[in-house]
Amino acid sequence: MEKANRRTLGIIFTHILLWVLLGFTLLVYPPLSWGIKLPAAFWIKHVSIIFFFVVIFYSNYLLFTPRLLFRNKRLLFLIWLLIALFFGQGLALLLERWLDFQVMMANARQRPPKHEELIDGFTLMFSLLVLGISTTVAAVRQWQQEARLKDELQKQQIASELSFLKAQINPHFFFNTLNNIYALSFSDVELSREALHKLSRMMRYLLYETAQNETSLVEELKFLKDHIELMQLRLHVNNQVIYKEPVLSHDYKIAPMLLLPFVENAFKHGISATKASEIRIEVSVKDQTLHLKVSNTLQEKTSNPLEESGIGLQNTKRRLNLLYPGRHLLTINKIANDTIYQVDLTLILS
Fold it and tell me: What are the protein's GO molecular function terms (predicted)?
């Protein structure tokens, strides 16, 4: 609140300073260089004109431009401009007659008085200038407010979408892992206990780390490693998993559970109980850029491309687009005569 008050006072002070500088530069300094003693009528007229400029500036800036021009009432706005110009001319002529301006100036210059003119060129020119500047300033202010509002709405939308996506990912992961442990409990009770221990550690990560938009990359990679080791507990002898993890010299921030769906997808489609299969997972970090490469043997032909199936993978693509726009590159391909499915993700970290 105090910061907002200081900002408001700063804006008011800036406006006052600009008007003082403008008035001195355009209306006070030039007459002083004429080398003559100017009558009081001259200063009364020009000070009055300055106050008139101030009034039409803020009337146009705060009232007529927002309520007429920005609401597509262009005809009424044009009428207002004409009234402002007409009123400025009328004020200048009334002041000249009331102050006997031409006679006073003629005496100061020691010249014959000029004929009274119907149009005061100085007042007209600066009235147009003031109206133009105030309209422009109001337009810029309006565009900034709209851009700020649009940005806030976009942030709210992104936050809502991310909350929804994470709400989908967590049950999806938990359901799949429990199924794996359930299947393992029939063959090896001790291994299933170990799996439950790893799962409890992973669930603590899910509960306490995924509530934020970003988490530690070190913790995310620990979580990923636990998941890989958990999945390896149920593999057959003909299944091979190769995981290469980076040695980090510096920790970074990353969106939680961003890498998991690609690994889940590899285990889902790359493991066979009867055929030899291989899953390769490589994570490297260099110069604030993370590179993830996941490849797995394709065990069967599917009617739909693998990259188009699965809640987790689709949500991860959406999260990448929301959280890392212009900061990620994701490519998904089938290589080696469609026998290997490969995912490459490059991500610029914060």
Answer: protein histidine kinase activity
